[in-house]
UniProtKB/TrEMBL annotation:
GO terms for molecular function: oxidoreductase activity. It comes from the Bacteria. Pfam families: MPAB_Lcp_cat (PF09995). Residues 30-270 form the ER-bound oxygenase mpaB/mpaB'/Rubber oxygenase catalytic domain. The lineage of its organism: Bacteria, Bacillati, Actinomycetota, Actinomycetes, Kitasatosporales. Residues 1-26 are annotated as: Disordered. This is DUF2236 domain-containing protein.
Length: 305
């Protein structure tokens, strides 16, 4: 199957053409990315990214995810929301990320030199979101149609252009994506040090600084009781919402009992979340963008999913 001709994206220095456009209001990603259920998928996508030795080494050596885990997570989430809901700011956020990654380089666990902007590594970081969404949707949402899955992939490619990923570095169709994905699983993925850290249930983690001062103090007081349960839940969702073939490639066990628990959890989520008002269902950046698009007549009222 031939790859469709796509418009060129900007070069790494921000020159070479018009800014790529983020996904349109009313698209699949406008529903998924800002929905609170998207938070449940993020750990699986992150673990799949850092299971690549080059990506894992970059995060291990250059990220503050150990010393500032909550701040790192908040900044990543804010950036992700901009890619989809940022409008004109989306492309600038993509350029900022590329500038940020220019100095990230070193040697991975297999003794290979890496640079964060090496096309195959940079593209893999973005590519992981599609198989995780493809798998997790069947638990957390109503099943997608084939047309919706194709639209999801097309919109994922458009976000890749926002990030500066060249068209030739990502498979152009869903049919081309799966052989590429399986080859990376077979040739590259392993339980890197960062994967092991993300799945650990016996590590220290400071309480998040959330909400007003009384809530933060209460959370700090209860944290010794909350932390072990939080870490077990994070591991459960990270492994469970990761595609089974990725689990196998990394060597992550998953039992039939855990699968039953995940299916029960997913049924509860599918019932409860669509009933929430928009102020509780969507994250703040998404709510503001959706409100603005609706006022401009660019976003129809969505039916609950």
């Amino acid at each position: 199957m031939t790859r469709p001709q796509e418009p060129l994206t900007r070069k790494a220095d921000g020159t070479g053409g018009p800014d790529p456009l983020p996904p349109p209001p009313g698209g699949v990603l406008w529903t998924l990315v800002g929905d609170v259920r998207g938070l449940l998928m993020l750990p699986a996508a992150l673990a799949l990214q850092v299971a690549h030795p080059a990506v894992g080494a970059g995060v291990d050596e250059h990220s503050v995810f150990r010393t500032d885990p909550w701040g790192r997570g908040e900044r990543s989430l804010r950036s992700l929301q901009l890619w989809v809901y940022g409008g004109d700011a989306a492309a600038e956020e993509g350029r900022r990320l590329r500038r940020l990654h220019r100095g990230i380089q070193g040697t991975d666990s297999r003794g290979r030199r890496y640079h964060a902007l090496t096309p195959e590594y940079y593209a893999w970081v973005h590519a992981t979101g599609f198989p995780v969404h493809h798998h997790a949707i069947r638990y957390l949402y109503r099943p997608f149609t084939e047309a919706q899955e194709r639209r999801l992939y097309a919109e994922w490619l458009s976000v890749g252009r926002v990030l500066g990923i060249r068209d030739r570095d990502m498979p152009g169709t869903v049919e081309e994506f799966w052989p590429y994905y399986r080859k990376v699983l077979a040739d590259e993925l392993e339980a890197t040090a960062v994967v092991r850290d993300l799945l650990a249930t016996d590590r220290g983690l400071p309480p998040p600084a959330l909400g007003p001062l009384p809530l933060r103090l209460l959370l700090r007081l209860c944290w010794p009781l909350v932390l072990p349960r939080f870490l077990r839940l994070r591991r459960f969702l990270t492994v469970g919402l990761m595609p089974p073939d990725a689990r196998e490639a990394i060597g992550l066990p998953w039992t039939a009992g855990q699968e039953r628990r995940l299916r029960r959890f997913g049924r509860a989520v599918r019932i409860v979340v669509p009933l929430l008002p928009e102020r509780l269902r969507y994250l703040p950046q998404a709510r503001r963008a959706r409100r603005r698009a609706r006022a401009e007549g660019r976003l129809p009222k969505a039916r609950p999913r």
